[in-house]
Amino acid sequence: MTLLDVKGLSVRFSGLTALDDVSFTLEEGNVRAVIGPNGAGKSTLFNAISGYVTPTSGTVFLKGQELTQLTPHEIAEQGVRRTFQNGGLFPALTVLENVMTGLHAQTEGSFLDILLGRSAALKSEAENIHRARELLKLMSMDHMADTRAGDLSGGQQRIVEIVRTVASDPPVLLLDEPAVGLSPVARAQMMEIIHRLAGEKGVGILLIEHAVELVMAAADRILVMAAGARIAEGTPEEIREDRAVLEAYLGHA
Amino acid sequence: MSQTKMPSARQRRLRSWLFWAVPAVLLLLPLATNPYTQFIANGILISVLVTLGFTLVIGNLGQLAFANTAFFGIGAYASAILAAKLGVPWLLTIPLAGAFGALGGFLASSAALRGIRSYYLAIITLAFGELMRWAYLHAKPVTGGTDGMPMPRETLLGTSLSDDTLKFYIFLAVTVLLVKATLNLMRSRFGRAVMAVRENEVATASLAIPTARVILVTFMWSGFVVGCAGALFARHVGHVFPESFGMLHLIASFAMVLVGGLGSVLGAVLGAVLLTALPEYLRAFPGMEELFFGLIVAGVLVAMPMGLASLLRRVSPIFVERFYREAP
Q1: What pairing do the DSSP bridges indicate for beta strands B155-156 and B159-160?
Q2: Where are the domains of chain A?
Q3: Would residue B14 count as lying in a domain?
């Protein structure tokens, strides 16, 4: 099933075309990598899909429902969730509290229920504590639940951020360089997590990544961008042989 | 690695018991006070609410907004005007003053929501406070101008509302209720969202949290709490003057927030108690009061940059404020 359908997405900032007519689809359980040199428009693509940048033209649909004009929190609530290149954890909150923020929209109880400490709010809160702990256990991070997130290693922070992002079971996940700065061991663990999310839970994953071996191993399809536009699209094998890609990365032979 | 020691189930039960034990013991306080110390105790309860509302915005939400004294003045004047001009019973003016304070919070948040942040938000909210003071001075037909607004005489259950013991019980009830409600708020998904906005607003929105609404509601709740405190203050002093709501009040409240510990409900209580009571003790040193006051504030902050609450947290995990609530 097609989860994400991006059609002719363009972003122009006063004369500069950051994203130029990009189209692609993302299927259930698939991993699609977005690669390209610096300034290719990968991050702008992510920001446009997740609502942080308003597209100049083009549309984004999630399971047939249009997301294009929604705000970031509305898009997240619809089920497209993302991580951030430079880390989006809340350093002063504990690991458990961080994961629980990912369950915000899943927690019941109105403002008044919370204020008065009514049982509806308390019960839902208790369920989410339990759920957050279970999710941390799946990643063998449960012993870290009460640690300040800011005190974790870089690799652990990336993992907690992913746990937080998938806590609400979103159908689509946008990962912005999840392996940057990670040790080889942590990278392998990240690969494993991406495989599990796509393979076992059927999450559609859009992945920006510079680590070529990770992209080749994890992606079902690759979108190659340069100067805001799509220059190639295909399976990892096809991309490896593509002349336009070689030129974009290495210059003309 | 700083693994925070969290309270055990037994300690959490003890803590919820302690929360109600403190006001229960305080019910006996009027037996141990004289008229002077009773008046001070009443003032402390008001300071607790003022500090609590302030710490929510600058500590938990992390916004450099200094409209707190404006909320306080708005609450006090709302209570005085409603009681004196419209004959509303004072007890009823407390929630109404809170509503006006919340309106002040709404106005202050509109600056933050338009992207005015950090130093710029600080200046614009300071200006808001001074503007309100100007309004109290110049809207003479409504506010009494420099003469201020006297509170009308009133009785409750046959006792005059100028009786400090009666006021103490009312102030205590209002304070305990608002502290409890604020604790409920902070130890919920809402409280976590407030801190998340402080830590990383962009990432917060990516978690389906409506950040603008979180900012708006935090400011409004802060305004409500401080506005209610204003109504208590109007009855406490019996006569509302513009000078009560100037920079001096703002700086004193800010010191209470910092001495107690930014973003801590317990800290708000500790800071307010210490810094409201302290000047009374320092009266024994005429001419040196301000000096000693300043030295003590500076001393606490140098020794404990995270405030008095951090000291208690080190003593026992029972004082660790978490932003979620497990079953007792």
Answers
A1: antiparallel
A2: 2-89+153-250, 91-151
A3: no
Cβ contacts (< 8 Å) between B5 and chain A: which residues?
146
Two structure tokens written together for B29:
């306080």
Q: CB A73 to CB B4 under 8 A? A: no
pLDDT over 90 (residue A79): yes
C-alpha to C-alpha distances, B89 to A28, B84, B162, B221, B241, nearest whole angstrom: 64, 9, 14, 23, 20
Helix B211-237 and helix B164-186: axis angle, to 10°? 170
In this prediction the ipTM stands at: 0.94
Asked if the structure places residue B31 within a domain, the reply is no
- Local structure of residue B58 (DSSP, 8 states): I
Number of domains in chain B: 1
Domain that holds residue B176: 36-246
Q: Report whether pLDDT(B305) > 60.
A: yes
Integer Cα distance of A238 and A28 in angstroms:
21
pLDDT tens, position by position, B68-111: 999 999 999 999 999 999 999 999 999 999 999 999 999 999 99
Does domain A2-89+153-250 sit in CATH 3.40.50.300?
A: yes
Residue B60: count other Cβ atoms within 10 Å of its Cβ: 23
A103·B4 Cβ contact <8 A: no
Does residue B168 fall inside a structural domain? yes
Query: What is the rounded CA–CA span in Å between residue A202 and residue B97?
Result: 53
Cβ-defined contact of B1 to A147 (cutoff 8 Å): yes
| Among B316, B307, B322, residue whose Cα is nearest residue B51 | B307
Distances (CA, A) of A122 to A112, B188, B192: 12, 8, 14
Contact B324 A125 (CB under 8 A): yes
Alpha helices in A15-167, H assignment, sequence order: 42-49, 72-78, 95-101, 111-115, 119-138, 154-166
Is A133 in the B-facing interface, judged by CB distances under 8 Å? no
* Mean pLDDT on B22-49: 96
User: Given CB atoms, is A115 within the 8 Å cutoff of chain B?
Assistant: yes
User: Is A77's Cβ below 8 Å from some Cβ in B?
Assistant: yes
The answer as to whether B224 is a domain residue is: yes
Q: Dump pLDDT digits (tens) for A159-208.
A: 999 999 999 999 999 999 998 888 898 889 899 999 999 999 999 999 99
